[in-house]
Design goal:
alpha+beta, 16 helices, three-stranded antiparallel beta sheet, globular, about 15% strand
Length: about 475
Amino acid sequence: MIRHRHIDKICIFAALAALLITTLFIQGEALGIKPLSASPGYETRLFDDSRVHTIDLQLEDWETFLAAAPSETYFQCDVVIDGELFPDTGLRAKGNNSRRLVEEYGLTRYSLKLELDHFREGQSYYGLDKFSLDASFQDNSYLKNYIAYDMMEYMGVPSPFCSYVWVTVNGNPHGLFLAVEEPEEAFARRNFGADYGQLYKPDYKSLNAENRDVALQYISDDPADYDNIFRNAKFQPDDTDKARLISALEILNTGGDLESAVCVDEVLRYFTVQVFVVNLDSYLGRTGHNYFLYEENGQLQILPWDYNLAFATYSLGMPDPVNDAGVYINYPIDTPASREIMSQRPLFHNLMQNDTYFAQYHSYFDELISGYFESGLFETETARVLELISPYVKKDPTAFCSYEDFLQGASTFYDFCALRAESIRGQLDGTLPSTIQEQLDFSGEYIDAGDAWLPDMGELADLDD
């Protein structure tokens, strides 16, 4: 028999401790406490970016798949990832203009989407439900998406995991691709916890339409006016979800407490990188798309997606001369588009009207330039990746460019980023103009682009080679 004079207190303490541990075990993630096992298994497997992984796509008739690729039809495919079989995976081509142009030029290098539970309910790759294989379309450097996501992650923006993959089809070499985590259930759980909010990928049906909802403008309280958002929901929103998002857009567009409707810190960090990479096929460009929108408890966040046409390699709507690297190396950080476009992009424009947020935006640029570029991190990481992937690019049978073009593209990419960082440092300290209007009045010397030629990073003409 236990005869301790404090036995009653000990028992009560033990019971309370057990209750506390049980509560944390059940509710810990909802309270923001992540267990040691919270990191998904796929993070240290497929998305270990220290090596090139292998994926073998096993289909009975690859030619039939290629013929149907333009329709984005899912095919049943056995997928072997780093030697491990995942049967009955859904496989389809992905992309908009890239998919159309690959077909038009008679090529076979489509970007691909793999959905592990499409044909086999509940199947996943260590918790991952879906991922893409990016084909580096118009990216001779093979670096644009990888480095853009790395910069976003460095700045604390929820970003997809990615890693390089050597893809084979029925054992035959197909090429070097970039595996990218799709922002869906696994991504949402990883970044926002088990009780995550709503995720959307706003996109237009026609670029010539008004597309005010893609631009995140408040239109009315009618959900039907936001079809380009709700039609592209990753999780089925109910009426309450829709009303909450519309209310956030109303606050964003008409004034009020912006921090009640926008996760300001995250959004400013996102735009810091977005403006650096001069991605004009994005929310800050004429198209206004290529982003994910996350909403939780009435607050909005904007998440990164699709950078193969970033680093000033998107021509639609760009000022002449299209290929003048000096224009985009010195592109102004405070007005990264014309007044016509900026006035229609409230998530950027309306935050920039607030002096506190504007100063915060500049402080994040200082953090990015000093921590990622001036520290040598960019140089080291770029060199590491190029050493890793060069042997694979050299033997890539479906590459959009030659190995020599890859080397030139990577060199141009590096120069563009290094010079862009130098220009932004000048814009921050006031020695270079940071707005379009200031540039019109500026008579000094900009950062010289040297012999950098933007098409070296990838252009449509490469598809003819």
